[in-house]
Every structure is written in structure tokens, then in C-alpha cells.
Amino acid sequence: MNKNHIALIDRLAETHTLPAENYLTLIRNLSDEEDAYLANCALKTKETHYGKQIFIRGLIEISNICKNDCYYCGIRASNRNCERYRLTEEEILSCCEEGYRLGFRTFVMQGGEDRFFTDDVLCDILHHIKAAYPDCAVTLSLGERSDISYRRLKKAGADRYLLRHETANPEHYRLLHPKKMLYLNRLRCLHVLRDVGFQVGCGFMVGSPFQTEEMLAEELRFIEAFKPDMCGIGPFIPHKDTDFRDFGAGSVRMTCRLLSCIRLIHPTVLLPATTALGTLHPQGREMGILHGANVVMPNLSPASVRKKYMLYDNKRSDGDESAQAIASIRARLESIGCTVSVSRGDIAAEEQ
Ligand code: SAM
């Protein structure tokens, strides 16, 4: 193993920060053995704060109707081949009921930016969920909204909000989104979400079109500076009905390497092993966990709509991506030395 590379990994584990050029070295140059060393450091760090526990979240994809036209996304507004759906309040509540019975104590409501879901509609749903399941956390992932909206959703009981920044590079952001979507607004939203009291998640795709290794180093610097409570990263996977159909998918190995770096940067961060990782590799989820991830988010949406929330080709929602497969998910996690936590799974307090 290269002594300099190991020294950089050790320094990251100890100080939680590196200059961008050192991140670039890790991104570009690690051998298999050095990757294993990095993963082991990340796993130990995760265990210091969370032990063997893995948190589970029930993911409810409430609508695939979206006003935005992100170039990479299968549910973008201009995709005429996407069969649209929207869950009713009753359907969402019955997903929660089933999720609760299966042992989930966090529900994640994710969807496109669907104008139907006004603050009034969402607050009503939140009140019902919180009244029925006061011991559960609710995470929202519903895109960019106004300050007032975020405030109202927080007050109505939502606990966490996931809004991937997608890329920390403003020029890159412009290559991935239409002109009217603004990088600065994305950032503004993240800061407002934090100010109004949410546990906040950001994140990015690995291997998205036009991304360079230097940009990945910038991503790590961004995570250092923003210090999110949650960080969702997964490989980009092309969708046949988007302009990016001919780009290659991101790499599983690079995603795992970055998961480990993020764990070392921010030891207590809630870090999911994402569906995209599980889609690209049959053991993707386990690999993510063994590289320092500590959250899995199986799908709790009604079976009838799962195939319609197709963000990228072949997105998995069956087998162990399904919340109903919790017994098998548990067995697979136990086979790699983990246990499934039955708590809400909030971020651990940092040691002083
Ligand atoms: N509308 C909400 C938002 O903008 O945050 C949540 C839904 S959005 C579809 C959820 C995430 O899916 C995005 O943040 C993006 O990173 C990811 N995603 C979309 N298309 C993808 C693709 N082709 N490959 C991998 N991830 C993708």
C-alpha cells in the first residue's frame, strides 16, 4: 500500500477534513487494498457512533408528477412516456399503517414537484400521520418550496427534509438542469430548511454527465462545509427517455469510496445505501453498508405504482428493495454483522 495514501486516510479519519487536492488523490489513485483500508476506517467510525445498528426507513413515493425538467430524471415533466400517478391521502396513510406494522418508525414521503401537494394538503397528511404514529419520524423529499412552506411543514410535524443539491459546482448544475432551475435557489432551500429546524439531507449523483474527478473533490469539500444531517449519494443511471440516455452509469466502486470518505468527514451523518447502488449491483446495499452507510430505505409505495416511479432504467422496487421483504433484508444485514434498529433513527449526538 502507498504510505502517502494511507497517511491521507488516517488524517481524514482523525481531523475530518482534507484540502481538495488530497481528496483528488484519494478519488483518483486508491488500489483495491487501499480502498479496503478506507472502508474499514469508515466502518469503525460508523460503529463508534452507531454500533452495529442500521436504520430503516419506509419510502413512500407519493407522486411522479413533476413540474421540473431535470435532464437526468425519468419523471421529468417533458417525458411523455411516463405514466403519471398521485397517491391519495388515504393511500399514503395506509402505506404508513402497513409500514408501522412491518416495524418502520420513519416514513419518507418523496415525490416530484407536484402542485397538487399544497401546504394545506401536506399539513393535513402530516397531522394525520403524527396523530396516528407519534413515535415515528417523517422525512419529506418534495423538492424546492418557499420559506413559508418549509416553516409550515415543520410546524405540522415533519422532522427531516432531503433535498439533494445534485452537484456543488454551479456550472455543472446548469448542464444538468434547465435554465430556470437555479443552483443558488437549491442552496437557499437547504439553508432555510436548516434554519426552520429540520434535520437536513443533501446529496449528489456519482458519475452524472459532465462530472469530473475535480468536481467530486469539490463535493467532499461541500459536505465538510455544509455538514448535513443526512447525505444521499448514489450512482447516476441513465433513463431511456431522457437526453442523457447514452451516458454511462456511475461506478459502484467510486460511490462506495465516496461513502467512506463522507463517513470520515462527518462521523455521525445518516448515510443511506441507496436504491441506485442496489440497482447497479446485486450486493450494492451490503457494499454500501460495509463502506460506512447506516441507513436503508426500502420501498413502501403501493405495488401498483412502484414501476411508475422510474427515475432511471431498471430501478429496483422488488425483492429486497421492497419494505414487505423486511425479514429478508434483516437476514442479509445480519449476515454482514449488522442489526436492524427499531428506533426512529435520529442522528447521534456528537462527542465533545
Ligand atoms: N423532487 C424531489 C427533489 O427534487 O428533491 C425528490 C424526487 S427526485 C426524483 C429524487 C432524486 O432522484 C434526485 O435528487 C436525484 O438525485 C435522483 N435521480 C433522479 N434521476 C436519477 C438518475 N437518472 N440516476 C440516479 N439518480 C437519479
List the bound ligands: S-adenosylmethionine
**How many H/I helical runs?**
14
Number of domains: 1
CATH superfamily: Aldolase class I
What is the annotated CATH architecture? Alpha-Beta Barrel
**Biggest beta-sheet profile:** 6 strands, parallel
Helix content: 40-55%
The chain-level structural class is alpha/beta
Structural features, described:
- By secondary structure, this protein is an alpha/beta fold.
- It has one domain (18-341): Aldolase class I (TIM Barrel, Alpha-Beta Barrel).
- Helix content is 44%, strand content 12%.
- The protein is built from 14 helices and nine strands.
- It has helices at residues 3-15, 20-29, 32-50, 89-102, 119-132, 147-155, 170-176, 183-195, 213-226, 252-265, 275-280, 284-290, 303-306, 326-335; strands spanning 53-56, 58-63, 106-111, 137-141, 160-162, 199-206, 230-235, 295-296, 339-340.
- The strands form two sheets. Strands 2-3-4-5-6-7 form a six-stranded parallel sheet.
- Helix 2 packs across helix 9 (213-226).
- The longest helix has 19 residues, at 32-50.
- The relative contact order is 0.17.
- The model has no long low-confidence stretch (mean pLDDT 97).
- S-adenosylmethionine binds at residues 72-73, 75, 110, 112-113, 141-143, 163-164, 166, 205, 234, 236-237, 239, 276, 311-312.
